[in-house]
Design goal:
Layout lengths: L9 E4 L4 E7 L3 E6 L5 E5 L2 E2 L4 E3 L3 E5 L2 H37 L1 E3 L2 E2 L1 H8 L5 H14 L8 H13 L17 H15 L4 H4 L18
Parallel strand pairs: 1-6
Antiparallel strand pairs: 1-2, 2-3, 3-4, 4-7, 5-6, 8-9
Length: 216
């Protein structure tokens, strides 16, 4: 995450030139070169401890601040989607790993223990999201129960998760029948929990999520 303090401040770039920060996004920023008076778009902007402006890449030569800002916004959205995909991929990999490590014997797994281990590393919301997205992408797979498919669709819809934003996420690799059992554990543990609770944040609202479709 960038360490930008404020817009409209003048910094010395890593190339020794003076730049004024214009619009700052999460992963990108617009800067104006004091010497050429043109604009540039920088990615992954950061301010070093000694006050120098650093970046990963820079596109020079924008004569229009409006065009530079449009480009910076588009790049920021791209980086944001890449970050989201990587984060959920990490959650899925940890789910696969901890389910595998929960093996007892004779094809028996301690899925409750796997869930307890995974939420030490990730929020319950992230775990549920990774599982729900996996089931949603494999809706054709009959090894997932209809109850869990309905829950996955409900979780995604209720939380406004845009599945098209996770086109680089290929889901958990755990065998579908085993992941279906893990999904039962997830549903049981997050039922009637608020969004803030699932995210591991302080409870600031009373609206609760209907987590399990068709729950008896």
């Amino acid at each position: 995450m960038p360490k930008i303090i404020e817009d409209s401040a003048v910094y010395t770039g890593k190339n020794g030139r003076l730049y004024e920060l214009g619009k700052v996004f999460m992963y990108t920023a617009v800067v104006q070169d004091f010497q050429s008076r043109t604009y540039a778009v920088i990615t992954k902007p950061n301010i070093s401890d000694d006050g120098l402006l650093w970046w990963r890449t820079k596109q020079d030569g924008f004569k229009s601040r409006t065009k530079a800002t449009k480009t910076a916004k588009e790049l920021d959205q791209m980086y944001s989607l890449m970050e989201k995909n990587q984060e959920i991929k990490n959650v899925a990999e940890d789910i696969d790993d901890l389910i595998s490590k929960s093996y007892i014997s004779n094809f028996n797994y301690d899925l409750d223990e796997a869930f307890n281990k995974i939420i030490e590393k990730h929020s319950e919301f992230e775990v549920a999201q990774a599982v729900a997205l996996t089931i949603n992408a494999k809706s054709w797979d009959g090894r997932f129960s209809q109850l869990n498919k309905a829950w996955a669709d409900n979780f995604i819809t209720f939380n406004g998760i845009k599945t098209e934003e996770y086109d680089r996420f290929y889901g958990c690799n755990t065998h579908s029948a085993l992941l279906d059992g893990f999904t039962d554990v997830v549903r049981k543990n997050i039922a009637n929990r608020s969004i803030t609770e699932l995210r591991g944040e302080s409870i600031a609202e009373e609206q609760f999520i209907e987590q399990s479709a068709g729950r008896k």
